[in-house]
Amino acid sequence: MNIWIMRHGEAGFDAPTDSERTLTEKGKNAAFLQGKWLSEQCISRNIQFDKILVSPYVRAQQTLTALTQGMEAVGFSQHFANITEEWDEITPNGSPDMIQDYLAFLNEEGANQVLIVSHLPLVFDLVQIFTQYQQSVHFYPAVIAEINWNGLKGVLLQEKMA
Q1: Contact assessment for residue 109 and residue 50, using Cβ atoms and an 8 Å cutoff
Q2: Which has the closest alpha carbon to 87: 64, 49, 57, 66?
Q3: List of residues 6+ apart from 111 with CB closer than 8 A
Q4: What is the per-residue DSSP string for 50-73?
Q5: Distance set, CA 86 to CA 20, 58, 64, 91, 148 (Å)
Q6: pLDDT tens string 93-111
Q7: Strands, DSSP E only, in the chain?
Q8: Is the peptide bond before 121 cis (omega within 30 degrees of 0)?
Q9: Does Kinase appear among the keywords (predicted)?
Q10: Which of the listed residues 22, 48, 79, 95 has the most CB atoms within 10 Å of its CB?
């Protein structure tokens, strides 16, 4: 299974709560450009996502929207609404162990490609847990990391900065 982990794009701080923070224009543009790059990866490698897990926080939702718009702009076509799951566990302080258990279930069910759109520190922790603390990623806003994971151990295949 390949797990694509993305941190949300750059967000402003002008919101009543952390969960309501919105992307800046720079953050929207970076997520859009990452979508174009991800689309090229999907097209050249014949990838279709089986599941997308996204945080309910506004900035993560906006990141996913801009990402999919970027993917569609390059010609990648997939019905994302049918495979997208908003999950409270994908928030900044979510449980990496619970997420790993869910991904193990998805892996057993035959999922090959899963995209996670989330936050620090969770995205960093996920890379650590999936690679047995052997690899890490500098998760600047809108960074995407791809991990190949066999259900027990994983390896970081690539990371893409916006």
Answers
A1: no
A2: 57
A3: 1, 50, 51, 103
A4: SEEEE-SSHHHHHHHHHHHHHHHH
A5: 15, 11, 11, 10, 23
A6: 999 999 999 999 999 999 9
A7: 2-7, 51-54, 84-86, 113-118, 144-149, 154-160
A8: yes
A9: no
A10: 22
> Which residue type does 95 have?
S
Question: In whole angstroms, how large is the CA radius of gyration of the chain?
Answer: 14
DSSP tally for the chain: helices H, then strands E: 4, 6
Instruction: With both helix axes pointing from N to C terminus, report the angle between 25-45 and 58-73 in degrees, rounded to the nearest 10.
Output: 50
In the numeric block, which tokens belong to residue 45?
């490698």
pLDDT single digits (tens) 10-49: 999 999 999 999 999 999 999 999 999 999 999 999 999 9
Spatial strand order in the sheet of 154-160: 84-86, 51-54, 113-118, 2-7, 144-149, 154-160
> Two tokens at 130?
């999936």
pTM of model > 0.85: yes
Could you tell me the sign of the dihedral formed by the alpha carbons of 54, 57, 89, 126, in that order? positive
Q: Which amino acid is at 160?
A: K
